[in-house]
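User: Just a sanity check before I run the rest of the batch. Below are the structure tokens for the first item. I only need the designed sequence back.
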């Protein structure tokens, strides 16, 4: 969802008169977040995420999938779009299928190094593919561009302003622990056991998720009074996420495509704890960043309080941290949203597609 919103913002800057329609599923946050961005939202019979565990939805999800294809076709026939853009996933299957049937050009973006099953199943139906990692193009058919992952804008904000907005010390190093949307319990447990030692020398920003927030507040109150302000737990971070990323010196978290892209665009070093499920997509993503020198990997089953304490020691090793910062910036593609928007516009206007070198240049430019 967030990469797609980033592309929509970039398209608006280039084509202010463009009209947008968003097709999503009946399960997830899209129905509340997308309209708040000023985009028209319509939902399909299909749910945004398919069920993995055995239940009635194991039977119903394929039926919803089949019924969503004519539903999408009806929407597209009525709207007559110039181009369809999708970030892959389960909902993309009926959308790209219907677009191909109606000869509407589609642009598909895949953020994981190892493409998901939905993308592999529908990639040949898309007119153009955009990916975050060069290795991904070899795994997919058709014309493929390396754009990176579209990210939120950090324009007009800097480290000093971010720390002031969060009310944290401008000089003391900051560790940001962010579990993303998947399985934050292991990260929360490590913070709980290591917190007293880490706040001796650093400040900690910690996104706990709703279920871990109350316990985090109790842990903060248990700290010595002079150190409580060094621990800032948050149930969720939305508008504040920009400031948290800008304020941090080191990020400890999962290896989702957007997390890695935002960290690398900002030159933010990472200690990555890849989510071990979902076909190990996150481990493949993390290895690419680690091989570039911008991150260190700790396997999920080895991440505990001691691993977090060892990670936090990087904050006292300025040469190592600076080297990781430089590697992250070299790896990053802060202009990814602009690069994807350029491809979408070319398809919409039926003009010649940009060269790979042009897209490379746009993706590497500051957002």
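Assistant: Here's the designed sequence for the first item:
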């Amino acid at each position: 969802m967030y990469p797609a919103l980033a592309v929509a913002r970039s398209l608006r800057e280039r084509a202010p008169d463009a009209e947008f329609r968003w097709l999503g599923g009946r399960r997830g946050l899209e129905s509340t977040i997308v309209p708040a961005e000023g985009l028209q939202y319509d939902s399909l019979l299909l749910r945004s995420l398919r069920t993995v565990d055995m239940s009635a939805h194991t039977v119903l999800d394929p039926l919803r999938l089949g019924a969503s294809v004519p539903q999408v076709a009806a929407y597209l026939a009525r709207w007559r779009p110039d181009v369809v853009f999708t970030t892959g996933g389960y909902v993309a299957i009926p959308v790209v299928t219907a677009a191909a049937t109606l000869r509407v050009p589609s642009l598909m973006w895949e953020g994981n190094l190892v493409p998901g099953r939905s993308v592999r199943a529908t990639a040949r139906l898309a007119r153009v593919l955009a990916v975050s990692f060069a290795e991904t193009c070899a795994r997919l058919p058709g014309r493929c561009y390396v754009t990176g992952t579209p990210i939120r804008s950090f324009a007009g904000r800097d480290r000093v302003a971010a720390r002031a907005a969060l009310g944290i010390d401008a000089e003391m190093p900051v560790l940001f622990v962010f579990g993303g949307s998947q399985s934050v319990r292991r990260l929360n447990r490590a913070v709980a056991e290591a917190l007293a030692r880490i706040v001796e020398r650093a400040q900690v920003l910690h996104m706990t998720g709703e279920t871990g927030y109350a316990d985090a507040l109790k842990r903060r109150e248990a700290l010595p009074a002079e150190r409580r302000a060094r621990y800032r737990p948050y149930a969720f971070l939305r508008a504040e996420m920009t400031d948290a990323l800008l304020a941090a010196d080191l990020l400890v978290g999962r290896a989702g495509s957007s997390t890695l892209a935002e960290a690398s665009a900002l030159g933010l070093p990472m200690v990555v704890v890849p989510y071990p499920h979902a076909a190990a997509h996150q481990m493949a993503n993390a290895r690419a960043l680690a091989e570039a020198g911008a991150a260190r990997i700790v396997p999920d089953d080895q991440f505990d309080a001691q691993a977090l304490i060892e990670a936090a020691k990087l904050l006292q090793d300025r040469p190592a941290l600076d080297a990781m910062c430089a590697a992250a910036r070299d790896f990053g593609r802060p202009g990814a949203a602009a690069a994807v928007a350029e491809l979408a516009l070319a398809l919409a206007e039926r003009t010649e597609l940009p060269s790979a070198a042009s897209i490379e240049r746009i993706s590497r430019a500051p957002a």
